[in-house]
Each structure stands twice: as structure tokens, then as C-alpha cells.
Amino acid sequence: MSDKAILEIDGKKYEFPIIRGTENEVAIDVKALRTVTGGVITLDPGFKNTGSCSSTITFLDGEKGILRHRGYAIEELTKKASFLEVAYLIIFGELPTKEEFAKFDNDVKKESLVNEEMKEIVNGFPKNAHPMGMVSALTSALTAFNPKSVYVGTEDEMYKAIVILLAKFPVLAAWSHRRNKGLPLNYADNSLDYISNIMQMLFKLPTEEYKMNPIAVKAMDELLILHEDHEQNCSTSTVRISGSSHVGLFASVATGVSALWGELHGGANQAVLEMLEAIKEDGGGVEKFIARAKDKNDPFRLMGFGHRVYKNFDPRARIIKEACDELFEDLDLNDPVLEIAKHLEQVALKDEYFIKRKLFPNVDFYSGIIYRALGIPVEMFTVMFAIGRLPGWIAQWKEMRENHEPIGRPRQLYVGEPLRAFKEYSER
Ligand code: CMC
To answer: What separation in angstroms does the CA of 209 have from each of 164, 205, 218?
Structure first.
């Protein structure tokens, strides 16, 4: 196959190198386009055809439904590794040895205290503030309490910033929930593993012993592993672009949290459960909602369906669906919303509209049902996604800085007014 792409503009031909990825993905390298053509740009709203970087972190094939981190299949990682091990793999490139993991785990634990003054910020939020807004603001506020992590310059500073954020982010996330519920703000218990700690920080009451349920911890661990990285999605691209101005890790991740909040992205898990509840309220029939999703005059979309990259089953959705069934069986649970979700999926997958557009359930379709079964309130679903995605944001930010990527600054095609004479205020 050719290693050059030829572009013809006004009868003049330009050649651009073709570069191939590990799995034979093909990209046209247009870095020289403006220079050689004298100013021509590409136009690609939503970056549907544009690669913003080369990366060694995650491979996904949307047509075949494949997802791998650093070469390891997501199916294996969810079954054989823990959340923090996968975080290490994603951030540093290799599965940790026992010694490496013990050090990393210990370094994270050593940073799990959050400055007491942060509590004043937490308590300054209205009780009904959405936790995603709180978490974004609190992540940004971390810079004020950790000034050395603001302009990460050396490898040491980078490692320090990474462990600080991995340690403190779940504490802040848990605090946003505790603020909503008017509960005292819990700290981590360093005798526990990462996931058990998240559970106790969310749920432990000062008045009684908190009994950890290993089935729930395992389900949460698996669910959060599935969210750890997903290459150049909206929030990750936001983190990379913010960081490309050389703003520090915490400020960059704060922008990622905000981007994740939207219902076309991470906010979909909350939107899915609200949609399923609305179907239940309406009597449980899914047809009316499918018809609305297909109606071009109705802005309603089937939440948890469709994906920019997956044009086949999202492999994460497949794993989550199985985990959901296992959890419900193990805990002997019953939730009518799970039955509605399964029925909705069946009907949609047979519908010509969804078949033609290759719309399949995505990661958010079943995750909310698991979160709810674990006792997590609906407004916290996207925060759980953010805790899961944190290692991916960190790894992608680190890669961007280590590759010395240039500042992210897209071009545009101006289609506004041409030059015109200013109209004086008195004449308008
Ligand atoms: N329900 C009904 N129609 C849909 C849906 C849906 N969920 N998703 C896409 N379509 C239609 C869309 O109307 C368009 O139809 P047409 O070609 O007739 O104009 C076609 O499918 C292609 O959609 P698109 O909006 O051009 O595709 P996109 O790649 O820009 O958007 C998406 C991807 C995820 C934003 C979109 O599928 C969507 O809005 N899904 C619902 C929200 C959701 O579940 N988001 C979570 C995504 S996965 C996790 C994450 O990223 O955080």
C-alpha cells in the first residue's frame, strides 16, 4: 500500500506522508499542510476524522469492539487486576511488580489526607449543589493547597502530583456526596485498599460499624477499571488541551471533570437511569420512548445508546451487563428498572433505525443500575465515572507533557461579515 497521500487543489498536487499505527490504522500526516499550500486548513467539526496525537496508552477498534490498555485486553484486566494496578499500568506503561505496586500503593496512601481548610470550601457549597460541580471546583482548589504541584517541571514533581491526585480525588468526590446528605466528611482509612476506601468514605456513619461487602467491592472495582481510559474522548481531549498550555495536572483534570459532566458524555449514566425511571413511571412500555428517539423533531435520544467510536457492541457494556447480572444474583437483588433496560435493549437492537446507524448500548447503559444497587445516589453516578477515569486523564496528560506536544490551538474557517465601516453610536 502507498505511503503517500496526494491532494490536488486548483490543479496543483501536494504529497503527504501516510503513517500507520501498531494495528495498521492509517493516518495522513497533514502537519505541513498550511505551510506547503500557503494557508489551506482541514475542517472537521467534532474531530470525527482527526487524530490529535499519537499515543501508546489505549487501543480501541470501534468496528470490532476491541479495547486494550498498553496491549492488555480489557476483558482480562477487569478479571485479573485491581483498579490501582490498572492505574499503574495505564500511567507508567507496564504492570507493576509486587515491589513496585507496594511502593505505589503506599505513596498514594501517604497522601490521602486533605487539608482541613478544604472543608470550609466544601461547606461553602449549597447543600443541593450538583456533586460534579463541587468536584471540579475542589480539584482546582487543590492547586492552592499544593503549590509545588502547580507547574510540574521535573519527573519527581510529576510523580508527586500523580500520587497526590490519585489519593485526594476520591476523598473530595466522597465529600461532595457527604455535603449533599449533610453527613460528616470522612477520611480514608489507610488499612483498606483503594476501592474499599471509596466505599467507606461514601457510606460509613459515625454511629455504627461499616460492614464492607466483598461482592460490592469487587463489582465496584470491576466497574471502575472499565472506565479507566478510553483514548481521546471529550474529557480526555479537554485535559490534554488544557495541559498543553503547561497548566498543571490538577487544573487540567478539573477541566476534564467539567467536560465529563455533560449528558452526551459521562453524564449519560445519570440520564439513563432517569430515562428508565421515566419509562417505569409511564407504565413500563418502551415503544413510546423508542419512537421519540427516532423522531427527528424531538430532541430526545435513547440515553446509553450510540458511541462516536463504537459501531459495534461497546465491549465495556458487554462486561457491565454480565457484572450486573452477577451482582443481582449474588446479592439476591431485584430492580424492575433492570428488566426495563433489558427489554429496551432488545427492542432497540431489532429496530431498523438503530441497526442502520449502528447504535448499540454503551458503557453508561447498565452502569447506573449497578451503582444504584451499590447504594450510590443517581447524582453521584457521573462522579463515580470521574473517579474511574482519573488514571486515564493522568496518563494522557503525562504522555502529552513527556512528548512535548505543542499547545492545542485549532484553526477555524471564518464565515462572518467582511470588513465594514463602524457605525457611530448616535447613528444606530
Ligand atoms: N438515540 C437516537 N438516535 C441517536 C442516538 C441515540 N442515543 N445516538 C445517535 N443517534 C443518531 C443521530 O440522530 C444520527 O442520526 P442521523 O444520521 O439520522 O442524523 C446518527 O445516529 C449519528 O449520531 P451522531 O450524533 O452524529 O453521532 P456522534 O458520534 O456525534 O454521537 C453520541 C455519539 C454518544 C454523542 C450519541 O450517540 C449520543 O448522543 N448518545 C446518547 C448519549 C450517550 O449515551 N452518551 C454516552 C456515550 S459513551 C460514554 C461516554 O462517552 O462518556
So the answer is: 28, 7, 20
